[in-house]
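Q: I'm building a small set of examples for a reading group on sequence design. Run inverse folding on the following structure and report the sequence directly after it, with nothing in between.
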């Protein structure tokens, strides 16, 4: 099933085109790795899908009713945006209020799902980078979204932590989630991503199966991400 479709989406910042007529379909239960140089439009793509930026032209189509989109999408930015002076549970209580979530069992379950302890009273400012990244994912998972948008989730992680995050992404994909991952570290998604999208200067150059082909520089088709 198509979870989200982009039709000729363009995003301008003044005269700069961050996205140029991007068209693609993203299916449920699949993971998409998004590659490209800095400034290629990758993060803008996620922000536009998340509703944090409006496209200048084109359409973004979701199958469900528009009023439920807030519950449908989960977004993790490159910066963790956590409150360092709060514990993990205190962070989730705060963000849960934004979604009308008061069920602490649901919050604790989200923290456990990413391999953290909801009873840990340590302030997040004392967490390792890997722990902070996991908590960001827990915050995203708290309202059980169907579309997950991850911007550089492996940044500044050691090998073991990156592997654990990749395994979590695999589990979420296998649960039927649609997952878009912006990354410069292709190897972490080698066994997880179903397809790769390569962007350059705001354009979607090509879409390929798996990971290796998208980074090889080989030519291939343009088309829908199916």
């Amino acid at each position: 099933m198509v979870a989200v479709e982009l039709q000729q989406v363009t995003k301008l910042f003044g005269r700069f085109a961050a996205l140029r007529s991007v068209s693609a379909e993203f299916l449920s239960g699949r993971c998409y790795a998004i590659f490209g140089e800095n400034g290629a439009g990758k993060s803008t793509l996620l922000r536009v899908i998340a509703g944090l930026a409006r496209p200048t032209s084109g359409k973004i189509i979701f199958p469900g009713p528009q009023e439920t989109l807030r519950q449908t999408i989960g977004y993790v930015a490159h910066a963790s945006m956590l409150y360092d002076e709060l514990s993990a549970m205190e962070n989730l209580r705060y963000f849960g209020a934004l979604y009308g979530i008061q069920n602490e069992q649901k919050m604790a379950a989200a923290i456990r799902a990413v391999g953290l302890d909801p009873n840990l009273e340590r302030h997040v400012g004392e967490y390792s980078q890997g722990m902070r990244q996991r908590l960001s994912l827990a915050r995203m998972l708290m309202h059980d979204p169907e579309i997950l948008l991850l911007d550089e989730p492996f940044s500044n992680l050691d090998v073991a932590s990156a592997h654990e995050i990749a395994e979590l992404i695999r589990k979420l994909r296998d649960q039927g989630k649609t997952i878009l991952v912006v990354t410069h570290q292709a190897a972490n998604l080698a066994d997880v991503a179903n397809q790769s999208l390569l962007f350059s200067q705001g354009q979607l150059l090509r879409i390929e199966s798996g990971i290796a082909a998208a980074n090889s520089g080989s030519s291939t088709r343009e088309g829908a991400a199916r």
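The chain has six helices and nine strands.
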